[in-house]
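check this:
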Amino acid sequence: MLPDWVYDADDHRFMTEALAEAEAAMVLGEVPVGAVVVRGNEIIARAGNRKTETADPSAHAEILALRDAGREVGDWRLEECTLYVTLEPCPMCAAACRQARLELLVWGADDPRAGACGSVLDLAADPRLGPPLAHRGGLEAERSKELLRHFFAKQRQSS
């Protein structure tokens, strides 16, 4: 994980937008993970988790944002795009990021339970899967972790 000072003002701005998507997901009772896809310094897609709302196990923020970005670009190849996501992607999402041919993947908090970009697995860099996906984590990690802590503390209280 890289420290916040490694990132520039645009990186912080885009992660702030991803955090807003995570907060919106939390309001809906979803695990607070948000994502934005950026191309040419412009957000072209955004999403938060919607697994519960849609009854779809694949409705992770990353997957939804990648789908919308593909529709926006008119191609499944998102080669000139960067995905900002508040939590390190799981195996499904890391694989989708590689399939999308993203230029860069940036995440906030590491996921020690299911992270597939270095915490548990590193599917983003595994050479057996083709060219590696450039990736780095730690951007606004504390803000991302705090949203998750708050959400799960509230879940435990209501159980």
About this structure: The beta strands are 34-39, 42-48, 81-87, 104-109, 135-137.
